[in-house]
Amino acid sequence: MALFLTKIDEVGLDLNNDYTNVFNDQTAGRLVETVSKMFGIPRNNVMPVKNYEMESEVEMDVDILALLALRRLQHLALDRLELLVSPEVAADSAVEQSNMSDTA
What is the pTM of this model? Predict the structure, then answer.
């Protein structure tokens, strides 16, 4: 499950219109944590984005957040498809990753 957290510009973040810093903002972190707990999904599946509302031109900072969110969503979808197509391969991969984290 994934969640797009929209309108982050309306929650009082101290970003000075630089939305690339949203991942370092404490207020955004608390908001992501709250939403994560509320819906029972991992924090890395909560993706903050800013809506285009008043802008008349494209802004790179706003686009970056949207593109990062879409890329994360694509990765989640590919992982899910891999589970559906080949559960054995996914189970082997999970065991392999677990073994790697035990040795790290």
Answer: 0.63
